[in-house]
Request: fold
Amino acid sequence: MSACETPNTPPASTPKADYALALHGGAGTIQREKMPPEKEAAYRAALDSALTIGENILKNGGSALDAVTQTVVFLENCPFFNAGRGAVFTHDGKNELDASIMDGRDQKAGAVGCVMHVRNPVLLARAVMEKSQHVMLTGAGAEQFAQENGLEMTDPKWFFTQERWDALQQQLAEEENKTGMTPPDPNRKFGTVGCVALDRQGNIAAATSTGGMTNKRWNRLGDTPVIGAGTYADNAVCGVSCTGHGEFFIRYAVAHDVWALMNYRGMSLQAATDEVVMKKLVEKGGDGGLIAVDKYGNVALPFNSAGMYRGYAKPGERQISIWR
Ligand code: ASP
Reply:
């Protein structure tokens, strides 16, 4: 490597993609044999529609920030995923929603936690980034800020789905200790949503949104609203959005760790994401995965669980997958 090359320059044969978009709809124990074909088709169709929304924005010269925002809004409104409508329930039978967004141009970021009446938490995270002096707002204060800024509020019934309600009832019935969330359940399914994009102007943005984990208590926050854990973006390096057992992603600053391995160690996107997800998190017992896009439009979608709803699009390439 010559002295003037930046460490994460791809080989000369790797042309820079004009734009790139990756998305996820959560990682976890998604059992292939147990998923009826109609259900699989419905999930794939939802991921495809989300990909189209984001890709069209990028194709038409729109910003990475708008692409990730609109893609996540669609996934929040889709009841299949654990974000917005379709969010999991807390121990007390409520939906507490977390979201974050980061703009790789200037590394401004916005995040919200424990909101219960904001229809699209990612829009609130963006409003925090663009219209406040702060990065993270939670609970009643975040909802007051939402109302003051004209965000759409909703009756919590909007977030209800029978499947998530039944999952809570099952966990409550199985719960043995009363010290917090049920211990990691091998059958637990995640469903957080996220999107990372590189636009034609070379800007990167990332956004993530979730209902958290079934049976959570005490206003627990996971990694999703924590910048550097669940979400990170920097035009000079990459953007990352995570999904998985949030406590592990917070402890190991997963999204920022990918950035750091690339920035300080000169690792490629693939090598850095593999190191974090397939090595470090596996060693520590942290289930999950992430999606990442670097400044050249390379995409990585590693996960260490049975499956991860995911997809990506760039000029001439498009893929949607659930299992390996
Ligand atoms: N990471 C989320 C959390 O811990 C859950 C998920 O990704 O499914 O809140």
About this structure: The helical segments are 37-59, 64-77, 121-131, 139-148, 162-174, 246-251, 254-265, 269-284. Residues 26, 82, 190-192, 210, 212-213, 222-224, 243-246 surround aspartic acid (CB under 6 Å).
